[in-house]
Design brief:
This protein is α+β, with helices and mostly antiparallel strands. About 40% of the residues lie in helices and about 15% in strands. It contains 11 helices and 9 strands.
Length: about 290
Amino acid sequence: MPTNLATTVAGEPLVADWASTLPCVIGDLARHWSLDVGAPFEPGGMTSWTAPARTADGAPTVLKIARRHYEAEHEADGLRAWAGHGAVRLIDFVRLDERSDALLLEACDPGIAASVLPEPAQDEVVAAVLRRLWIHPPAGSPFRPLASMCAAWADEMDTRPATAMIGDAGLVRAGVGLFYELAAHWAGADVLLATDLHAGNVLTARREPWLAKDPKPYIGDPTYDVLQHLLNCPDRLTAAPLPLVERMAGLLDLDPARLGRWLFARCVLECPGRPELAAVARALIPA
């Protein structure tokens, strides 16, 4: 079986024409892994396609075909490092072409997202899963430092929209600078991070109560890993950001002041796309 399955599809990389090549690639993968592939969980998106599947012996699995992008470059490596502890197991992996991967994954049963729970219960689930995921990176692992991702985000940011929304150019500069600084200056031990963990990416399972999916692995400060969950709780975040920060810091034995600074910086970067975060950033101005 060739490692570049996409070369069997009209000689073109999968990413060249996602819609037209995807059915052929699914067929190639089904034959490669002897799968009976079902209907996708959701209509195909721009970055991934996932569907339930069964192996020749009837075992349930999930087939994921993903366009690699900067943040999710090492998804398969992360799942391999976690080895099923707090995250779905990686059964097998194929690099399709220079920008596309196929992952054969453990199926979560019943696979209900934690986002159906009341938000205070989501806090506890997310905290429990993060504790499982924060392992020391294996020797020789390919994971990039969190500072590289944060620098890429900050380097690309046009600060003008954020300045218009927050109303203070100095405050915006402080937020962007803090985003660089917090990632680059972390005195604790680096851990493997998911970086995009929120209740929608945590599913019920039988092997463990909850399993994470769709990680974007980096290594660095675990405090950063709480941010996406906070941003996915918009009502509580906008109404009372400091109590929410203190709650999550307490559940994870993190420094609430550092988490507050991380959240301030992230809100500055995010507010051009989410205007409500401008007020959150103003409420979290570091001393």
